[in-house]
Amino acid sequence: MADLENKVHPELIKKVQEQMLVDEEFNKLGNLYYVFSDPVRIKIIFLLVISEMCVYDISTLINATQSNVSHHLAILKSNDLVSFYKKGKQVIYFLKDDHVKRIFQLGLEHIREK
Amino acid sequence: MADLENKVHPELIKKVQEQMLVDEEFNKLGNLYYVFSDPVRIKIIFLLVISEMCVYDISTLINATQSNVSHHLAILKSNDLVSFYKKGKQVIYFLKDDHVKRIFQLGLEHIREK
DNA sequence: ATAACGTATGAACATTTATTCATACGTTCA
DNA sequence: TGAACGTATGAATAAATGTTCATACGTTAT
Known about the structure:
Two copies of one chain form a homodimer. The first copy, chain A, has six helices and three strands; from the N terminus they run αααβααββα. Chain A is α+β, with helices and mostly antiparallel strands. Chain A has one domain (about 10-110): Arc Repressor Mutant, subunit A. Chain A starts with 9 loop residues before the first helix and ends with a helix. At the A-B interface, helix 1, helix 2, helix 3, strand 1 and helix 4 of A face helix 1, helix 2, helix 3, strand 1 and helix 4 of B. Chain A binds a DNA duplex through helix 5.
């Protein structure tokens, strides 16, 4: 009988392979968290957790240029985390999904503990 | 009285400013999610959610080079998401914190819905 | 002591990313 | 109609990132 202590662990390998996700799922997960990974985007998410908001207010609150905020909102939009509606000249953005709020809050818990 | 419909929204600005996080917290959040944002690292996290594991097994299971996995583990380690112990020649990595597991699972729920 | 094994690390390169600037688009109001 | 406002977009640049390769480190077994 092979000395499993000193080799790869075949029983573990097998167990994991049975539940392995497909690459496309890992990529989607990566994209989702990528959106959260930038300080400017996290700030935008933080704001939208509190309330829907127009681009100008977002720019003001996080001290970023309007252009920069627009670029980041485009990323949030293309990853389906936000949607928007128009109100006169303004574009009001809001979170599409409650998961976004929950992921944000879990992250906040994490960095605040210890 | 100013026409608030067509200007910045001062009452919203004020409300948000009262709960605004400090920049350091936003940066920490960004770093946390950054770790999740790469497909290779997400795969590693997925594996460690299932079980602690040595570097060689991780490399095998996700089809990556040992060097690549080591580099990514270093990132996970420096961001305090994993820890490790040694067992002979092997180094066994494990998740330090249950939040990591929960964040992963929330993300998975998100991408699977709809 | 030396070889074999599992892991870590540094350098180099190609790619991706964020920010800024200039400008265009669409809506409202005069 | 034209000016002002709010927003979007493309190009350019600088910086950050991921992967590979070569090699070093530490442990075990001969």
